[in-house]
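Components:
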Amino acid sequence: MNKTVLLIASGIAALLSQVWVFDYALLFGALNPYPYFFWILLLPPDFDKRLLLVLAFLLGLGVDAFNDTGGLHAAASTAIAFARPWFIRLIATQGGLEFERLGLYDLGFRRFAVYAGIATLAHHVLLYTLEAFSWRLMGRVLLFTTVGSILTFLVALLILLPFRKTPSTR
Amino acid sequence: MNKLLGFLARHHFTLLFIALELLALGLFIRNHAYPQSTVFNTRRAAIGAALETRSRWIDYFGLREQNERLNRENNRLRNALRSNYAELFTQQDTVVDTVLQRQYRYREAEVVKLTHHKANNYITLNKGSIHGVKPGMGIVGDQGIVGVVRSVSPHFASGHTVLHNRFSTSGALKSGLYGNVRWGGGRSRDAEIVDLPDQAGAAPGDTVFTTEFSGIFPKGIPIGIVRTLERTDDGLFVKARIELLTDFTRLKHVQVIENMLWTERQELETSVETEP
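Structure:
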């Protein structure tokens, strides 16, 4: 029961910090960090996959509601939840390891950087490609995806640094 | 049938993913096609109220600058008052004015939400249908044009800003020759004017003003300043980069413009177009 509360509370915190803080943090007057979907990445590896799809969809939809973007973030974050097992396998095969938790201090920086970095890149590619919705803006898409991914990753790292122990949400 | 059930059971995860993804894309595309118009429901009304609360806090930090800008505008308008001028001609009759009919009416509004860094940017104002705001009305700020209202709820109005893929309006130079103004997806101050006739004699530093073609804006509202020019291959037209005058990063107070003769003009124009 306690863990359900923690799960919901952390999800709401991820949503509100995104729409009330990071949506207004503009780098170069144009780029937002989008660290909200790290909430999906940080759930335990054996978390129910189907439930995670639905939760990721709802989280994205929440961000969309505040940004007037329809289902843009919902599409991107659902895709991340879908691909998450694959991202986990990618780092696990590097040492044939099984992980109980996926936090920064649980994985160590290098593994975490691979895991979260690839997820961030995937999320941003989807997000900016869909957002542009036309090939005319391809240059913008490439630029925003690269710089935006780096920005999001750095911001997420700064948030996660103080949390030495990942709270268990199982 | 068993095979179908077996297929569903084996691929439920992927199928759920596809269903959710289609739902999300459907919502996104519907929102893209009719931004904020079809789903201006209670969800949006609730979020509109939440945004307004947040906006009130953010406003506090920009008060000084906003006050200075309003004061400057006040000063300019006061200087234009008729009472500043000595009457040189004193005829005191009541005249039923048949020479002037009011065409444009301005309503003040505050920006509740605005983006300027996305591929398509929207604006939400704190005035809605109960204040008389209707879709299709123009939005201007103290520096220049801002956008167009697309849909309204009782207390809010929402629309495209100039920084939108589908926003375009005609812009004219002092000479009266005009081109088409649109934003190219770049920074929030960079726009361009295309199809400007070469003989317009545009030069860097010229101001581009609105025209009456669209019926949305009155004539002569500033849009931007010409920065660089580029002749098209056939040499007949000029394409110019313009710097938008409106600073979308600091926009707070705007006016919504109603064209009171719009219905009349539209009816006339459609009757001509549908004439056999």
